[in-house]
Write a structure and sequence with these properties.
Helices cover 37% and strands 28% of the residues. The protein is built from eleven helices and 28 strands. Helix 2 (141-167) crosses helix 7 (284-311).
Length: 655
């Protein structure tokens, strides 16, 4: 047990060193120019920031004009931000441009794609392709095969080594069959790793390549451990002869190579954790759960195969004593399997709680379906294991013939656990429903038979993009008669505003606007009208707060408070800017009917806007000043509310 503890500490230490914070897929977060930005001056480069580190080798930023001609220089490179990429532009003029991006995750090689548009001058924005949100393509057959082979090899190697070291360590006659299992395990791990490398091809991220290389080396170590001969070792043996003499007799042991096989299996299991969703979430606790989950299922499934191949198929139970001896071995493995199953169920439940959003996810999402299939297979395998524990094992320990039933049960259990690895290969290839997205707000409700997922691009006040994904089961709901969002504020009576969404991709409806222009808690009522059906409606609670905002500030201007923010939140030189001001009284209610003026002072004069022009009214207590562009630098904006109040707002404009 000390050896197992030391190996576990080494594996967990390696996981801590190699694991990093990441997402399951690299999703779009923000860009410069921003999505749908309208610029006065043409940019010289495009920068895109993703939710996790992309691998430049498998990624691409293509900037196209309205004719589809590329206007970038093709010099894709990291932007300086750990999760960013940049590409330089050729000299461009007035017009609309489309940025099509492909991001290959540096964590697991999964690919996401998407696009956004910007315009220079008064040209219209180009239409975005009907691709919806960035989504990973389904796993390829080669990826599924590579994962299944790897998982089966890890389980077979780790489970066999554990079985012969701790469950049945004292009977050397089955060593040849044990070696056959370890050799097969090593070949499966190497073949699975090679298949995953081939599936990635030239876009293989360095981190993923290094981990798959480590897995292949572990597979080679498993195969070598099967080929290493027994080591001779000397032990003192006392024998009585005459007055008593002590003789020393040599004997051979398989223990050292079995320890090597166990270490190789644990190392391969660690690589499986480091390329799985657990590492993507970046939570050490989740990574530990995942590793324990893999080790537990390996001890159970690999041990079943070792019990069947090394013991049961060659055992002879003609006499009651041999039956009882076999029954004791089955009892020891059954106790080991019980502990493994308890750990498997516990860690599986804890992981599922963090990766599923709704119970309906089990049959409405690809990830959930794969998980449900895996659970069903494990339940049937567990039933067969219980039969071995409660029926065939006790009969053997009583000296009765029960080998045939035990063999049939273990064969069935082996087949089912093999199917579990195929289900697990799909499970780890799909993104979980609760995967962290690039949206600031992402919530899912189930209404009637529809799955409604609301995404909001930003948690800051001001102009925003609201997207509703509508699915019935796995199928997107297309061509809805109407999809609308109605906004009301909980803390104050700001009235009700409505945005009507348009379908931008199958089952995905989007609307842009600035109804949530004030800090507080907003209700977004999503209404979906389908032909011949009653409207489906649900309410999402969307918080708008100053936390994390880059430009929003609360300014004291007695007797009022001013909530001031810009659209976009990070103003850029050459791009138009909207300065939004929300005027509230001491009770927090909006103040309407005031004249609000903004005076700018900074690195250059404001043109062509008259800095003392009255702001336009944009809602109850909300006012807006539109600015064509500001030069880069720090600006001071004096905001006057009538003649009774004023406040100062600092504004930084980036290049």
């Amino acid at each position: 047990m000390r050896i197992v503890a030391r190996l576990a500490l080494l594996v967990l230490g390696g996981a801590a060193l190699l694991g990093g914070v990441a997402e399951a897929h690299a999703n779009y977060v923000r860009s410069t120019p921003a999505s749908d930005a309208r610029l006065v001056k043409p940019p010289t480069e495009v920068r895109v920031e993703f939710s996790e580190q992309p691998d430049p080798k498998g990624s691409e930023l293509a900037v196209l004009d309205v004719a589809g001609k590329r206007v970038d220089k093709g010099d894709l490179a990291p932007s300086g931000d750990p999760n960013g990429l940049r590409v330089s532009l050729q000299p461009i003029g007035e017009g609309g441009y489309l940025v099509s991006w492909t991001a290959s995750s540096a964590v697991d090689g999964h690919t996401t794609k998407g696009a956004f548009a910007f315009a220079v001058g008064s040209a219209p924005l180009p239409a975005l392709p009907d691709v919806g949100s960035a989504a990973a393509p389904p796993p390829s057959p080669l990826e599924v095969a590579g994962r299944a082979l790897s998982y089966a090899g890890i389980a077979l190697g780790l489970g066999t080594a554990f079985f012969v070291l701790f469950v049945h360590p004292h009977a050397p006659p089955e060593a040849r069959r044990e070696r056959e299992l370890l050799m097969l395990a090593g070949l499966l791990v190497v073949a699975g790793s090679a298949a995953l490398v081939l599936e990635q091809g030239a876009k293989l991220p360095p981190r993923l390549g290094a981990l798959l290389g480590m897995r292949a080396v572990a597979g080679v170590a498993l195969a070598i451990s099967a080929a290493v001969p027994r080591l001779a070792r000397m032990r003192p043996v006392t024998a009585l002869a005459g007055g008593g003499v002590m003789t020393i007799a040599p004997f051979a042991t398989d223990r050292p190579r079995r320890i090597v096989a166990l270490a190789a299996g644990l190392s391969a299991a660690m690589t499986a954790t480091l390329v799985a969703h657990a590492t993507a979430y970046g939570d050490p606790k989740d990574m530990l759960f995942d590793l324990v989950h893999i080790v537990a299922v390996s001890v159970w499934s690999g041990g079943i195969v070792a019990l069947l191949w090394c013991i049961l198929l060659r055992a002879r139970v003609e006499r009651p004593e041999t039956a009882r001896r076999l029954g004791r071995t089955v009892w020891r493995f059954s106790l080991t399997a019980l502990v493994a199953v308890a750990l498997l169920v516990t860690t599986g439940i804890l992981q599922s709680l963090s990766r599923l959003v709704l119970i309906e996810d089990l049959y409405e999402t690809p990830y959930g379906i794969a998980l449900a299939v895996k659970i069903a297979l494990l339940v049937v395998a567990l039933a067969l294991g219980a039969l071995n524990l409660l029926v065939w094992g006790p009969r053997l320990r009583a000296g009765r013939a029960a080998k045939a039933g035990l063999v049939r049960g273990t064969i069935g259990e082996t087949v089912l656990l093999g199917a579990v690895f195929v289900a697990a290969s799909f499970l780890t290839a799909f993104a979980p429903p609760a995967q962290v997205s690039a949206a600031a707000y992402d919530q899912t409700h189930h209404v009637q038979d529809l799955r409604l997922e609301m995404l909001v691009a930003s948690g800051q006040p001001g102009r925003n993009r609201y997207v509703l994904r509508v699915h019935r089961g796995l199928a997107p709901v297309q061509s809805a008669e109407k999809v609308a969002f109605r906004f009301t504020m909980i803390e104050h009576d700001m009235g009700e505003q409505e945005l009507v969404a348009t379908e931008r991709a199958p089952g995905e409806y989007s609307a842009d606007g600035s109804p949530t222009a004030m800090f507080g808690t907003w209700r977004i009522q999503a209404i979906v009208r389908l032909t011949g059906r009653e409207d489906a409606s649900t309410v999402f609670t969307f918080p708008v707060a100053a936390t994390g905002a880059t430009s929003a500030k609360v300014i004291a201007a007695p007797p009022y408070n001013l909530i001031v923010f810009t659209d976009p939140s990070q103003p850029q030189t050459g791009a138009p800017i909207a300065l939004n001001v929300v005027v509230i009284d001491q009770k927090g209610d909006p103040v309407s009917g005031k004249k609000v003026r903004a005076t700018f002072s900074g690195p250059a004069p404001v043109a062509p806007l008259d800095a003392t022009e009255d702001a336009a009214v944009s809602g109850p207590g909300r006012y807006k000043v539109a600015i064509d562009a500001l030069d880069a630098g720090s600006w001071k904006v004096t905001i006057a509310v009538g003649s009774e109040a004023s406040g100062m707002y600092g504004l930084d404009v980036s290049r």
